[in-house]
Structure prediction request, 218 residues.
Amino acid sequence: MKLYLDTADIDQIRSAVALGVVDGVTTNPSIIAASGLGYREAVTGIDDVVDGPIFAQVVGESADEMVEQAHRYQDWADDVVAKIPASRAGFEALARLRDDGVPAGSTVVFSVEQAVLAAKNDADFVAPYVGRLDDAGADGLETVRRMQRTFDRQEFDTDVLAASVRNTTQATALYEAGIDAITMGPDLLDAHVGHPKTDEGIAGFDEAWGDRGSPIEE
Ligand code: G3P
Prediction:
């Protein structure tokens, strides 16, 4: 399973990378706008601190614009994957990028049928939005489970990359369902670290050991 960080904040990326679990970084126009960086600046800055793919979304409404941007992103770093919205123009762009050999996948995905169109285009990934599916009154986790089951049974190479995951309950349900990939904000990754009982246990051991110093000092 791949675990990606969903942010353009370099300090937060650095601190998450130190945990040894970050396989790459996902961004979107909202994330880059919030960072105050330009697109190119964000991608190259992330590339300096992460060993793994950087996902950069295209903007605009026409397939031509999307294809042009996705090609340009390839010049900015060694491992950039274009995120293409799952619209009609987006699927057209995806088909053209596949023919051009440019890494790309579908984002803002809300249904199994959209995901299948992306997989039929040999997309590198599809990114269903778990939290926003719930916001819309659907069952985000169940939709993603069906997507993953469909891809596994059809033996599609496309990764199901769960996005808009907002809490550890959703994240652990996705791990259990055998999700190919997940992206999460730094706060959700932080919520994976530690446990109140872990803190309590550590405090108990520290107290028992008292002022005896480091175990490797005789
Ligand atoms: O990767 C998509 C994610 O950033 C969207 O999250 O919580 O705004 O639905 P959210």
